[in-house]
Write a structure and sequence with these properties.
Helix content is 75%, strand content 1%. The protein contains 12 helices and 2 strands. A two-stranded antiparallel ribbon has the order 1-2. β1 and β2 form a beta hairpin.
């Protein structure tokens, strides 16, 4: 026998959500407070440092450029995988497990795996040296290239899931209609499937871009301490310098920069995605 939920029971069910929301809002308030309030009272000293110091400008520029490259690389590499999962419904669950298995492994372990592959004496350099393609090791880690490779590998499953979720909503009768009108398989994909799947592609780009902007572990291990990103700078201020005000200032600037990036991405999506698909 079914019983209707009482207002009291609904209140208890909403309590965890309200608790999470309160913690989130409290952390945001604390972030703003620490950014504008130092030991000496209200101050904009750290904001002035970020505006005036060229090395800080370089950190933000590196963060944005790496995040954009990772987001685009993830989208390009994820699309064929998502398309394959869409086209093979019998094998979809098995292939989806293969895509999601890396999430079951620690991020640190996966990043160290790239150290083994890309290091000066790693598998890739030793293989190229063995075939005579190179004489000295290629610099594949402790630079921006290593960070891009590592972050792309870590974040690409997000782009796969986002693209696949939209591909699964496409009516296959649209492809049949296109082919019945004489369009080739490539023309059908270019004129029908690709435009309809662009919302999922842009969603994946947004997720990978935002995650890359705040990445810490992969940039530290594959980029080194000299190739700083905004996330590693915040980590350094909290863990090593114990300067919460400066870390909050960096985090606030990173938040604003990420929001600006989403605005640009949304404008680009609005220009490329047909209105009927949004």
């Amino acid at each position: 026998m079914r019983t209707s939920a009482t207002p009291q029971s609904l209140g208890w069910l909403l309590l965890p959500a309200l608790l999470v929301l309160a913690l989130f809002l409290g952390s945001v308030v604390l972030l703003f407070f620490n950014a504008f309030w130092t030991r000496d009272g209200f101050s904009l000293v750290y904001f002035r440092q970020i505006v005036e110091r060229p090395d800080y400008h370089e950190v933000f520029l590196r963060t944005v450029s790496i995040s954009v490259v990772v987001a685009l690389a993830s989208a390009v590499l994820a699309y064929p995988i998502a398309w394959l999962l869409w086209r093979l419904p019998r094998w979809r669950n098995l292939l989806l497990v293969v895509v999601l298995v890396p999430w079951l492994v620690s991020l640190v372990v996966r990043t160290y795996g790239w150290l083994v592959i890309l290091g000066p004496k790693g598998f890739l350099n030793e293989a190229l040296r063995w075939v005579g393609a190179i004489q000295s090791p290629l610099p594949l880690i402790f630079n921006d290239l290593g960070v891009v490779i590592g972050l792309t590998h870590v974040l690409m499953p997000f782009a796969v899931i986002a693209t696949l979720s939209v591909l699964l909503q496409i009516d296959t009768r649209l492809e049949e209609a296109s082919e019945s009108l004489g369009a080739s398989g490539l023309a059908t994909w270019r004129r029908v499937v690709l435009p309809l799947s662009l919302p999922g592609v842009f969603t994946g780009i947004g997720i990978t871009f935002l995650t890359s902007m705040g990445a810490i572990v992969t940039p530290i291990l594959l980029g080194g301490l000299r190739q700083k990103m905004a996330g590693t700078q915040i980590y350094q201020e909290v863990v090593y310098n114990f300067n919460m005000s400066k870390a909050s200032t960096w985090a606030l600037c990173l938040l604003l920069l990420s929001g600006l990036g989403l605005v640009v991405l949304r404008a680009l999506e609005g220009a490329l995605v047909p209105k009927a698909d949004r």
